[in-house]
Each structure stands twice: as structure tokens, then as C-alpha cells.
User: Fold this.
Amino acid sequence: MNQTLIGFVIFYLLVSLGIGAYAATRVRNVEDYYVAGRNLGMPIVIAMVFATWFGAETVLGIPGTLMSENLGATISDPFGASLALILFGLIFARPLYRMKLLTLGDFYRKRFNRPVEIVMSLAIAISYLGWVAAQVTALGLVFNVLSAEVISTEQGIMIGATVVLFYTLFGGMWSVALTTFFQMTVIVVGLLWIAFIVGSMPEVNGVAPVIEHARAAGKFEFWPELEWVAVVTFVSGLLTMGFGSIPQQDVFQRANSSHTERVAVWGTVIGGAAYFLFAAVPIYLTYSATLVDPAMTAEVLAKDPQLVLPHFVTTSLPLLAQVVFFGALLSVIMSTASGTLLAPSVTISENILRGFLSEKNLEDHHFLWITRAVVVVFTVLVVIYSLYSLEAETTIHTMVENAYKITLATAFVPLVAGLFWKSANNTGATLSIVLGFAFWLGMEFMAPEGTLPPQFAGFIAGVFGMVTGSLLSRR
Assistant:
């Protein structure tokens, strides 16, 4: 165990906690906690969009998937994820920003009714379990590698969740904004510098040899075979995140925290484009391990493809590069974890609990403490889910993919129809949600590996339910 490296990691965690503590001084009411008072400028919004989505799956999960399969297996992320951010900025950010909402659940209540708000808010909150758990699991893996397995992955999960909880708990969106801006700087500068070091190694000698080696190994195979099952699976993988990630509180929260409508639109679009382009850096670093240390790569690949890059860094790079890499990796994971921990907690508090507590005439600061209590409870649920997924050997990339199935099947269609189809009504929304959920869940049990992926079947059923229910109820 490298004491210097461990010392740096502890120092970095303390700095993040310090920024979170400072951010807490800027929180005076619920609006500050939820959307930072709608006061954030373009650089901060771009940083939040980029750093929140540039998470554990981008540095560990996506490269691990490509190493064990090929580029086509990453269609959901980064391709689908980037598509979601760009579409949200270009199509959804402007009309939602003009509505001056605190949460996405508020939209479902204003456009439809209270029952739709509750069900959609629950679906959105549940979808975050997989995403936040992926980040917390990655923290557990990092602490396990850094400590030379003195700290178990399970212990690392609990340590990581505790740190993220404390600097998110009091500062809310202000904490996410300030820590994310700091963390994005570490991510970009750190990973680019490490890429330069790796590219200078004689075994690598730049970018072109790595690309050529990966191409010869078939890693750039992208398009599916021209047969029904392969094409449907490919398209479903793109749309699960490409559409399923749009009705999400974290994306909405970043756009809605913007100072102006223009910032909301272009901050999201630029952040999404930057995410797609920069996702290539960890892929390049991970595949370089094949050229530098093929024996180590093959050994780790057989055990856990997600750990190829951390092992490559600790065994082949100098100490300073290790310090920078793990600082960047912690930034990647913590920036995503904090934002995705806050989003479902805010949704549960504002769109589910507030309605049941409205008769108590709670003051703003009292409800703020209720929201913080929900953050704690949700963190506990995330830890439980993370430990379960670890035991089930679910990969980080798969955990993130699974997170958006429920929102694709239930939440996406009512959002699109509610914004852009005047004929959409409560009956259509209700039928869309019921059919989407029933078809998705039913096929998950009966035919999870069927020709038509369950979440895609739910999406199609949801479209049918919205159109049929809205038109028939009008008649």
C-alpha cells in the first residue's frame, strides 16, 4: 500500500468536504437547495452537465465493456447518453425553463394531475438507485485497489457513500455546482496529462498505434448484423439511455439552475458534446495497457475488465501520475454521485412528501430539513443496492444501463406528449404509464432476453396508450 497515494486521496476527500461545507453557507431556502437560486452561469452549467455524466461508467465501465466486447456494445453509453443531453438541450430545456419549475415532477402535476405526479416521481427516483449505486460501487473498487485490498470493496462502498453524503447533505445544488467545477478541472487536466505520459511510452508511441491495434483486434466493430434481433437490440440500447435519460431530475436540475434560458439550452448541449468527445480518453488509456503490459491486461481482463485501467496505472505509471489519475478518478465518481444523489431525494421530497404534508403549513426551513433527511435515507438504500449488485456481479456499465429502463417505459412518453401535443390528457397519460409499466415488467419476467427488449416493448406500449387514451377520452 502506497502511503503517499493514500495520503493524497485523504487530502482530496477533505478538500471536497470543505467545498461542500462552504456551499452550505449559500443555502437559505428550498430554491437554493434545489436549483442554486437559478443563478448559475454558462461555465458552471457546462461543468455540471459534463462532470455529472462523466462518471464511473465512463472511466471504468465503458472501457471495460469495449475491452471484453467491442465498440458496438457501448451504444448506450456514451452514444445514447450524449444523445440524451443534446436532445434535452435543443428540444426540452427551453419550454421547461420557461415554466419556472423546481422539479420535473412539478411538470407532470401541472400538465396532468397529482396521481401522475406521484407515480412519475417514484419512477424517476427508483431509476437513480442503479446510477448512484454504480458510482458508489466504483468508489468501493477504488479504495480496494488503493489499499492493496486492505479495505474490502464492501467497506469502500460504505466509506465512499458517507463522504458523498456529507458534502451533498447541507449544500444541495450549490454544493454540487461548486464541487463539480473544481472536479471537472481535475478530470480534464489530469486525464489529458496522463494520456500524454502514456502516449510517450515506447510501447505506445502516440495514438495511431493504439487505434491500429484495436482495429486489428476487432474492437471498432460498431454496426449490428443486418438481422432483426441484432438491429432491434442495437436501437433499443441507443434509445434506453438516449430517450430514457431525458425525463431525469439531474438533467432538468442543471438546466433549470441556469441564470438564463440561453445558458440552460447551450450549457446542456455543449456539456453533452464535451462528454461524448472526452469519453474517448479513458478508452485510449485502457487499451494502451494491452500494448504496455499484455500479461497483466489479460489476467485482470479475465477477472474484472473494469479494473484494467486502475491496475495499469498502479503498475506501469510513476507515482505522480498515479496521484493525478486517482484524483481525477475520484473527481469523476464523486461529481456524478453527488448530483445523482441529490436529484431523487429532491424529487421524493417535493413531489411526494410535500403533498401529504401541505396541511401542516411547514415553513421553508423545516421542509429543507425534511429534504436532507430524505437524502440520508436514499443513501442507505443506495448502499444496500450496491452491496446486492456487487454480490450479483453486476457490472458498473450494466447498472447504469438498467437505471433508465423504467423511465423509458413510463416517463418519456408523457413528458413529450405533455409538452408538444395539445390533445394529451390525464386519461392518455394514465393509460400510457399503466401499459408501459405492465409491458416492461411483464416481459422482464417472461422474456428478458426476447427478440424485443422489455423496456422497448414498454416504450411502444406507452406510445399506444397515450394516443389511444387521449383520443378516446376526447370523443
In short: Residues 3-391 form a domain with the Sodium/glucose cotransporter fold (CATH 1.20.1730.10).
